[in-house]
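[Archive record]
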Amino acid sequence: MRVIKQRSLKITRTLVLFMLILSIFSVSLSGKAEAADRVKIGTQTFTESKVLAEIYKALIEDRTDLSVDVTTDLASSSLVLRALSTGEMDMGSVYSGEIFNGYFEVEETRDRDEVLRQAQEGFDKLWNLKWYDSLGYENTYTLAVKQEVADEYGLSKMSDLKDHAGDMRIGVDTTWLERPTDGYPAFTKEYGFTFAQTSPMEISLVYSAVADNIVDVVLAYTTDPGLKEFNLVTLEDDKQFFPPFDASTVVRKELIEEHPELDEVLSSLVGTIDADTMTELSYQVDVEKMEPRTVAMKYLVDLGLLDESKLPASAMHPDANSFMKFYYYVTENASYLLHLTWVHILMVLCGLGLSLVIGIPLGILSARFEKTGRVIMFFTNIIQVLPSMALLVLLMVMFGLGFKSVVIGLFLYSLNPVVRNTYVGLKEVSPALQDAGKGMGMSRFQLLWKVEMPLSIPFLMAGLRVAAVIAIGVAALAPIIGGDGLGREIYAGLNQRHNIKILAGAIPAALLAILADILLGRLAERFKIAKR
C-alpha cells in the first residue's frame, strides 16, 4: 500500500499543476483584455488586406505609443465587421460594396460615392464604426479567363459567355456562391446563364486553378496580383452587375475617442493608394515572396511616411538565397513566432487541463454506473467524430472569435480519450486489491483515491498522450475562427503560396506533437507500478 499512497500523491500534484496552468491562463486573458495600449487589427484571407494591416501597424507604432497586434485570415469581410462590432477587433480594411449583404436597408445604386456614403452612415448607426473615405482604389469582382480562351471564344465582356457557359467550369471564392445580392444566384438571373460546374475555393487558389485548366473561368478581384502573374484577361461587366468596392479603413469609434491621435495617422492614408499600386504591393508578396510587413514598410518609406532605418534586414537583401531568406524570416520574426508557439502550447494545455478536470470525474461515473457510462461514452464519441472545422465554426457562432472558442474545442476533442481511459483503468483494478482496501476499513472515497485511481494512472496517461497529439493538430485550425497559434503561419503561407511561412509554422507544430508524445510517454512510465 505504501507504493499506492506514493502514487496518490503524484496524482494530486498532477491535478494541482493543471489547475495552476488554468489559473495562469485566466490571468493572462484578463491582462490582455485590460491592456488599453494595444490595437487589434483583423484581416481577411487575401494578401491585400494583410499588406494594409502592416501599413497601419507600421504607422501607428511609429507615430504613437500604441502597440499593434495583427490577426490574419479571418474568413470574410463580414467576419471582420462582426469582430469590430463585438470589440474582438479594433480596426480593419473593408470595402464599400459590403453594404449589399443584408446588414441594413440600402438604396440600390452603382454610384461609388453613394455606396460609400451609405456604408459610412449605415455602419455608424448599426455598430458605431468610423468608416474612413476611400484609400484611393476600388477592388471589385470581375470574371477572368486565359488569353487563349478569350481568343478562342471571342470573349471581351461577361455577356459573351452566354453561349459557352453551359460547357465551362468556374472557380470562385468561398463566399460568392451564397452572397444574396451580388453573388452567383443574382448573377445568373442578371446575365441569363449558368456554368456547368462551380468550384468554391480560397481566392488565392483560383488563379493557379485556371492556369492548370482545372477551371475555365474564375471570379477574380480587380487588384489581385494573380491577374498579372498568370496573364489573365478580365471581362467587362457590361450589365454593371457588380457593385463598387472602394477600400476604406474601418475603426471602432470608441478606440478613436480613447486615442484621438489615431485619427490623424489613419486620415493620412486616405486617397494615397491607387489600384495599380495595390496590385503591385500584393504582387511583391504573392509572386516575389516578400513579407507583407517588408512590402508595407518599403511603401511607406517610398512615400516619405517612414524613415528608412526602420526597414528590416531582409528588405536590404532581396536577392538572398533560400536558406538566408529563411534565416532572415526567423530572426526578424523570432518574437512573433515564439508568441505563436507559446499561444499554441497554452491553448493545448488549457484544453487538456479542462479535459482532465471534467473527464476524470465523468470516467469515474462511467465506471461506477454502467447505464450512465453508456450515455457519457455515447456523447463523447459523437463529439470525437465531428469534423474539426465544423465544430470550431459552431463554437465560434456560440462563443465568438478567438482563444476561448479554440480552447473549448480542444477540450471537447480531448474529452473522449480521458473519459474512456479513466473508465478502462478503473475497470482493470484487481477485485482482490479492492477487497483488501475494504478489509482495511477504507471508505468508498478512500478506496477510489488511494487504490483505484493510482492503479489507473498508466491508462489515464495513455489517454492523455493521445489527447495531447490530437489537440496539437486541431489547434492548428485556430486561425479559421480568429485564434492564434502556429496554424496562423501555416494558413498564411498556404494563402500566399509562401513555403518559408508554411515551414515556420509546420516545423514547430510537428516538433510539439513529437515532444508531447515522448514526454507523456516517459511520464507514463514513471507512473507505472512495478509488479511485485
User: Anything to note?
Assistant: DSSP finds 22 helices and ten strands in the chain. The CA atoms of residues 210 and 216 lie 6 Å apart.
